[in-house]
C-alpha cells in the first residue's frame, strides 16, 4: 500500500512539473515574433531554424501543447485521487481533497509559474524546446488535428480550421497590455486599434460630403481644369454632366499637365472629356477595409459614393482611408485648413460644420467634465454639427443662423463659395452653464 502511494505521489509531481513546462512553452510560443526569429536565423542563432518551422504551424503546435497539458493535468488529478482514497478513511472526502490540492497546484505551477517564465523569456524557452516540439508534432500532430475535427463537428458554427484563435476583443486587449508594458508606443497602439476599426467603419463616416465636393463640368477645357486643381489643391476632380448626380468621370492633374504643358494655347483646345478617366462608384454603406482592399486591387485612388437612392453622397480618396489608420496627413494645402475644433473662449468653440456630433460630444465632455445628451431623435437623424443646425432650423442653414438645443448655442459661420452663394463651413458652439440640478 505504502509503495503504491509513493509511486503515485512521484507520478503526480512529475505530471504537474511537465504540465508546467508545457504551459511555459505554450505561453512562449504565443509571444514570439516571426520577424525577430527570421532575424535570429540570419544571425545563425542555434535552434532558430527549428523555431521558424514551429512558427510556420503555430496553431498546430499550440493545440498539441493544450492536448498534452490537459492529459497531464487529468493524470495528476487521477493519481492524487488514488492517493487520497488510499490514505483517508472516507473516499468521498479523499476525492474532494484531491481535487482541491491538484487545482491549487495546477494554478500555481502551470497558470502562474509556467506562463510567467514563458512570457518573460519567450525566445530562450522556444530556442531550447523547438527541436523537441517539432518531433512531438510529427507523432501527435495527426491526433491534435483529429480532435479539432471532432470538436468542429460538435460545436455550432463553421468551426476552426487549425484550432482556436484569439477573438478581436482578445487581440485588442493584447495590444493594450503591450502598450502598458512599453512593448508598443501609444501612437503605435492607436494605429493598431484603428486597423481593427476599419471593418466596422463605413465610408459614409469619413467621406467628403456632396456639398463640399470640388467638381468641373463636362465641356470645360483642360486649361480650366488645371487652374481649378491649382486653386483647390486637389489632384483628382470629378467631371459632371447635367448635374452632380451625373458624374461621368474623374480628371487627374497629372493627365492634365501632360496635355497642357507643351500646348501653345494653354490647353484650350483639349476638353476634360478627352482626358478624364472612368469613375468608380461604390455604396456609401461599404466598410473601409473592403474599399481599401478594392482600391488596392484596382489601382484606384478615388471613389464616388452613392446613397441608397442612387444619388451621389460624396467621395472618398485612399488618403482619407489611410488617415483613419495613421492620423491626419497634412500637406501644403492642408496646413491652411481650419482645425476641426478650436477653443476660442472658456466655454466656446469654433468647429467645422462636418464635425460629427459624437466627436463634439466627446470633446466637450472630456474638457469640461459635462455630460451632453442629444436625444434619440437627433441621434437617429443627425450626424454632423451642420446637420444639427439644419435639423433645428428646418432648412439649410445660412451664415449667421443661430439655434439653441441640448444646452448648446450654435451659430453658423460661412462665406460665399466660388459661385457666389453663401454656404456654411463652420459654427461657433457656446456651452451653457450646468444647471443646479445637474451639479447636484
Automatic annotation (TrEMBL):
Membrane protein topology class: Multi-pass membrane protein
Keyword Transmembrane part of the UniProt annotation: yes
Chain ranges of the CBS domain: 207-266, 275-332
CDD domains: CBS_pair_CorC_HlyC_assoc
SUPFAM superfamilies, per the entry: CBS-domain pair (SSF54631), FAD-binding/transporter-associated domain-like (SSF56176)
GO cellular component, one term: plasma membrane
Boundaries of every CNNM transmembrane domain copy: 1-188
Pfam families reported in the protein's UniProt record: CBS, CNNM, CorC_HlyC
Main location: membrane
GO molecular function term, any single one: flavin adenine dinucleotide binding
Membrane spanning residue stretches: 6-25, 66-85, 91-113, 125-144
Keywords: CBS domain, Cell membrane, Membrane, Repeat, Transmembrane, Transmembrane helix
Presence of the UniProt keyword Repeat in the record: yes
Compartments in which it is found: Cell membrane
Similarity remark: Belongs to the UPF0053 family.
Protein name: Membrane protein
Amino acid at each position: 500500500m505504502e509503495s503504491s502511494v509513493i509511486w503515485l505521489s512521484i507520478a503526480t509531481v512529475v505530471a504537474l512539473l511537465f504540465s508546467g513546462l508545457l504551459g511555459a512553452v505554450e505561453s512562449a510560443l504565443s509571444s514570439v515574433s516571426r520577424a525577430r526569429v527570421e532575424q535570429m536565423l540570419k544571425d545563425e542563432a542555434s535552434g532558430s531554424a527549428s523555431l521558424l518551422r514551429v512558427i510556420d504551424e503555430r496553431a498546430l503546435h499550440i493545440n498539441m501543447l493544450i492536448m498534452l497539458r490537459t492529459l497531464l493535468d487529468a493524470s495528476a488529478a487521477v493519481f492524487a485521487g488514488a492517493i487520497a482514497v488510499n490514505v483517508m478513511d472516507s473516499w468521498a472526502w479523499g476525492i474532494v481533497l484531491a481535487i482541491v490540492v491538484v487545482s491549487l497546484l495546477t494554478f500555481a505551477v502551470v497558470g502562474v509559474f509556467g506562463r510567467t517564465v514563458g512570457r518573460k523569456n519567450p525566445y530562450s524557452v522556444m530556442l531550447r524546446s523547438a527541436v523537441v516540439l517539432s518531433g512531438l508534432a510529427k507523432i501527435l500532430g495527426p491526433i491534435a488535428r483529429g480532435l479539432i475535427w471532432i470538436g468542429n463537428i460538435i460545436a455550432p458554427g463553421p468551426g476552426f480550421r487549425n484550432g482556436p484563435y484569439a477573438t478581436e476583443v482578445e487581440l485588442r486587449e493584447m495590444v493594450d497590455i503591450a502598450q502598458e508594458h512599453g512593448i508598443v508606443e501609444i501612437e503605435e497602439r492607436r494605429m493598431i486599434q484603428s486597423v481593427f476599426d476599419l471593418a466596422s467603419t463605413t465610408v459614409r463616416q469619413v467621406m467628403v460630403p456632396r456639398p463640399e465636393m470640388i467638381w468641373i463640368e463636362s465641356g470645360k477645357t483642360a486649361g480650366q481644369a488645371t487652374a481649378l486643381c491649382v486653386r483647390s489643391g486637389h489632384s483628382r476632380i470629378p467631371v459632371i454632366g447635367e448635374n452632380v448626380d451625373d458624374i461621368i468621370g474623374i480628371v487627374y492633374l497629372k493627365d492634365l499637365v501632360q496635355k497642357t504643358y507643351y500646348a501653345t494655347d494653354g490647353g484650350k483646345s483639349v476638353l476634360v472629356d478627352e482626358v478624364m478617366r472612368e469613375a468608380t462608384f461604390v455604396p456609401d454603406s461599404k466598410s473601409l477595409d473592403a474599399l481599401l482592399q478594392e482600391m488596392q486591387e484596382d489601382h484606384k485612388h478615388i471613389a464616388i459614393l452613392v446613397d441608397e437612392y442612387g444619388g451621389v453622397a460624396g467621395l472618398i480618396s485612399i488618403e482619407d482611408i489611410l488617415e483613419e489608420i495613421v492620423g491626419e496627413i497634412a500637406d501644403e494645402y492642408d496646413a491652411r485648413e481650419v482645425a476641426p475644433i478650436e477653443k476660442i473662449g472658456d466655454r466656446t468653440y469654433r468647429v467645422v460644420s462636418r464635425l460629427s456630433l459624437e466627436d463634439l460630444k466627446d470633446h466637450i465632455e472630456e474638457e469640461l467634465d459635462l455630460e451632453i445628451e442629444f436625444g434619440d431623435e437627433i441621434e437617429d437623424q443627425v450626424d454632423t454639427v451642420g446637420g444639427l443646425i439644419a435639423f433645428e432650423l428646418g432648412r439649410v442653414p445660412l451664415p449667421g443662423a443661430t439655434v439653441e438645443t441640448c444646452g448648446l448655442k450654435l451659430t453658423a459661420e460661412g462665406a460665399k463659395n466660388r459661385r457666389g452663394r453663401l454656404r456654411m463651413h463652420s459654427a461657433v458652439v457656446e456651452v451653457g452653464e450646468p444647471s443646479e440640478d445637474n451639479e447636484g
